[in-house]
Amino acid sequence: MSDELAEHLNALARDGCYRVDAVLKESTCETTERVYFQGANGAEMGPFVRKRIDCASGMGTAYELLCAAQRAGRRFRFLPRVHDCYRVGDGMVVVMEYVEGETLADAVYRLDASVPLALDVFPRLCDALAELHEGFDAPIIHRDLKPSNVMLSRGGLTIIDFGIARAWRAGADEDTRRFGTRAYASPEQFGFGQTDVRSDVYALGMLLYFCLTECTPDAKARAAGFADVRIPEPFRQVIARAAAFDPQARYASAAEAKRAFLAAADALGVPPADSERAEPPADPERLAPPAVPPVALGPAPASQCPPSPVAGFPAPATVHQSLRARLSGFPFWLGVAWDVLLALLALLLVAAGVSVAVDPQPGSSLAEEPFARRALSVACVVLLMFFPMLFLLRDRRPLRRLFPQAPRVRLRVEAACAAGAFVACFLLVGLLGALFP
User: Fold this and answer.
1) What is the pLDDT of residue 96?
2) What is the pLDDT of residue 57?
3) How large is the angle between the packed helices 104-111 and 115-134, nearest 10 degrees?
4) Which residues contact 419 (CB under 8 A, 6 or more apart)?
5) Which uninterrupted H or E stretch holds 102?
6) Minimal CA–CA distance to 300: which of 45, 54, 31, 130?
7) Residue 244 CB: number of other CB atoms within 10 A?
8) Cis amide linkage into residue 309, ω under 30° from 0
9) Do residues 310 and 111 lie in contact, with contact meaning Cβ atoms separated by under 8 Å?
10) Is residue 397 packed enough to be buried (19+ CB in 10 Å), middle (13-18) or exposed (0-12)?
11) Could you give the count of Cα atoms lying within 13 Å of 375 in the half-sphere of its Cβ?
């Protein structure tokens, strides 16, 4: 049997040892799955992430570099653990750590964009990029750094999705085959030159803008010099330099961007309290899925931590908060229309409840009850079931526009509106009770 055939059969054997739990993302060149390793005795380990990448697309080379470095004994604080990386036919298969937690996009939506959040996240994000740029013989350029590719958990911060990442090569004037996400991708990713570490520094500046405003940076923001009432001037200067159109005008490295950010924080008198804290050592109990002979998968991933907050902030997002996070990606006017629709639906529910209380269907159980009891029953259903649901599904951006730097004021306004709606509903029921004894 030839070595090539043996390697192919071995890859197929490894492939068959995983049970697919869910398809997380799918495109023409890449499929991302959540999988569980199944042992010979039926026991399962996981979850893990498995990526199937079309090698003809030129994607995935960074995973091979990361896997090789980790098998050689390197440990990274901000990069996921790659357990296995092998070829099957014309494709590449990557099995890696499943990172629990929430994305930066969800965290910013849940916690609200603010200076304290940026102070907590941005220095660690710079450290993560520095690890990617400085931890290999040739810097690895991520090229798709965006809020959904930054994971926050109790274990810290992790950069994910290295599909279009590449190692820097001298003289590669036209290296970009895939653009990344337009709002966060540097100009050189669209044919203006070779990407290098300053391309990721560009994305760093855009991510800082997002952490401070919860807005996706666009041409209008650039034209305004990234000026915004929510962005203190020292931080605006950091963003403007990091996201300069000319790569030569940007910070030369993520470490330099971090130093500039910390200097700006000092100038504002709000230095990050934990910016220089020592990171915990790597977990010695990282366990890999069982090896499939003759392949050794190497040390396995960090223990899976339950979702938990960014340091110093509340608990992680729940299902309804994730839904609201999706709504935040729509245009602002659509969010206003959504809130108006919810308000009209609330009024419709109140009207329906009043109709049932005043004129119940003949023969129904409510028809035999006195009006006061009917009204109380309907009010409980409307107030305790439907109103909280509508309140949780609202789009909060209109209030954020009115009170951009006062989250406590927004919270009080929202609480006052909710309390007002409850009181008005009860007053309406009481009035009807007086009119229809």
Assistant:
1) 92
2) 76
3) 170
4) none
5) strand 102-103
6) 45
7) 18
8) no
9) yes
10) buried
11) 18
Determine the Cα–Cα distance for residues 139 and 137; give it in Å rounded to an integer.
7
Alpha-carbon separation of residue 340 from 112, 303, 346, 398, 400 (angstroms): 22, 45, 10, 11, 16
CA atoms within 13 A on the CB side of 162: 27
Tokens of 172: 């590669």
3-state secondary structure of 77: coil
pTM: 0.64
Cα–Cα distance measured from residue 205 to residue 217, given in angstroms and rounded to the nearest whole number? 10
CA distance 20 to 33: 7
Average pLDDT over residues 95-106: 91
DSSP assignment of 20-58, as one string? Answer: EEEEEEE-SSEEEEEEEEE-TTS-EEEEEEEEEEEGGGT
Q: How many degrees, rounded to 5, is the angle at CA 140 between CA 53 and CA 159?
A: 70
Task: Provide the pLDDT for residue 130.
Answer: 93
| pLDDT tens per residue, range 387-419 | 667 776 777 666 666 555 445 555 666 667 666
Location of structure tokens 């990050």: 272
Structure tokens at 410: 């927004």
Q: Residue-wise over 137-150: b if at least 16 C-beta within 10 A, else e?
A: eebbbbbbbbbebb
